[in-house]
Design goal:
Elements lengths: L3 E3 L6 E4 L3 E3 L12 E4 L11 E8 L3 E8 L5 E3 L3 E3 L12 E2 L1
Antiparallel strand pairs: 1-3, 2-4, 5-6, 6-8, 7-9
């Protein structure tokens, strides 16, 4: 209980889920299940106080969806970012305050 795990993915992969998870008193882990997903765009840093989920949308392409942790709100940047053909992300890194 109280142990923390920090996740990161190898080069060429993007993290989906929580980058940090904590063992809770009920012996479950906080946050969202973490997974490494291959992709061409470099993984942008996950902002503080946020989780990221990667989805592959047929119309838009590979998209990152950010969710602020409980008690925080999106104070700037983009909630969604999509990998473009030039291997750059749309939008700006979200800010959770």
């Amino acid at each position: 209980v109280g142990s923390m795990v920090f996740f990161r993915c190898r080069k060429g992969y993007h993290i989906q889920g929580s980058t940090t998870r904590t063992c809770l008193a009920n012996l479950t882990w906080s946050g969202i299940q973490t997974e490494c997903i291959p992709h061409a765009c470099r993984q942008p840093e996950t902002p503080a106080h946020a989780d990221v989920r990667a989805i592959d949308l047929p119309t838009f392409g590979y998209t990152l969806v950010y969710t602020c942790h409980p008690g925080f709100f999106l104070a700037g940047g983009s909630e969604h970012r999509t990998c473009k053909a030039d291997m750059k992300w749309t939008g700006k890194s979200p800010v959770c305050k």
